[in-house]
Amino acid sequence: MPKEKPELSDAMKKKLGGKTFIKNPIQGTKYTIAISSAKGGVGKSTFATNLALALKKVGCKVGLLDADIYGPSLPKLFSINEKPKSDGKTLIPILKYDIQCMSIGFLTEEQTPMIWRGPMVTSAIKTFTQKVAWKDLDFIIVDMPPGTGDTQLTFSQEIKMDGVIIISTPQEIALQDVKRGIRMFDKLGVKIIGLIDNMSHFIGDDGKKYPIFGEGGVKRTAGEFNKEFLGEIPINPEVGKLGDLGTPIVESKPDHEISKIYLNLAKKIKSTYL
Fold first, then answer.
1. Global pTM value
2. Side-chain half-sphere CA neighbours of 155 within 13 A
């Protein structure tokens, strides 16, 4: 007997039901692409930063918006320790690796917890999308928080997103949440560019492939929902090590096998949109 697809919660259905939303583009960019994961800890922020760097390396002008209000990663992953300047009306993005960057983490102390209710999160998202002086960009990559909560709803309902890439690991527990995420974006009319199987396997010293989290689950889920499977990114210790140093692998080792995966995806995105 086939498994039932996980449904949205009653609360989520109530929030989504029957409304028409006016979606505004982010000023200063041609296209907005969100990076989403339904569950935390699957490498979403690492993916977002490396994809932004890969798009830059294939000739695009790129912005990177860290919209993970409760767990901002961009200050660490890009080793940014300064606060953005303001012209009195808008915030000026911080330029790092030739990428325009903005994060709530630039405005708070590193150890300060973000104990915010939904309306405050919504206000922060509107500031980052309407009151930041993004300039002449081809793409803004938006690092969304995990899950299907207020931030995802605010973005999807009010911001014109040109596509979303969903990141997951192959475990069934992660895929159950991915299916809910797919349903949410479909309900909100946001184009799903495709799914990425992150940390899909590692290559041992013997050259063999070890899928320690399971195998093929993300690809099967993509097929189940008629979405594109964008490929696998294997586990590699250098990815985490370089991210912790603030020098992501695509920037510091562009010829690495992992970097080539990101660069090939960036070329595909560029040819699709530009």
1. 0.89
2. 32
**Would you kindly state where each structural domain of the chain is located, as residue ranges?**
32-273
For 53, list phi and psi in degrees, rounded to 5: -65, -40
pLDDT at residue 113, rounded to an integer: 64
Beta bridge partner(s), residue 24? 159
For 97-111, write each residue's pLDDT tens digit. Answer: 999 999 988 987 766
Question: Residue holding tokens 């603030």?
Answer: 246
Helix axes 150-158, 172-188, angle to 10 degrees: 30
* Alpha carbon of residue 80 to chain centroid: 19
> What is the per-residue pLDDT for 194?
97
Inter-residue contact 162 to 31 (CB < 8 Å): yes
- Could you give the CA distance from residue 13 to residue 2 in angstroms, rounded to a whole number? 24
> Strand 29-36 relative to strand 62-66: parallel, antiparallel, unpaired?
unpaired
CA 119 centroid distance within chain: 22
- Distance CA(217)–CA(173), nearest Å, equals 11
Q: Give 174-215 pLDDT, tens digit per residue.
A: 888 899 999 999 998 999 999 999 999 988 888 888 898 888
Does domain 32-273 match CATH 3.40.50.300?
A: yes
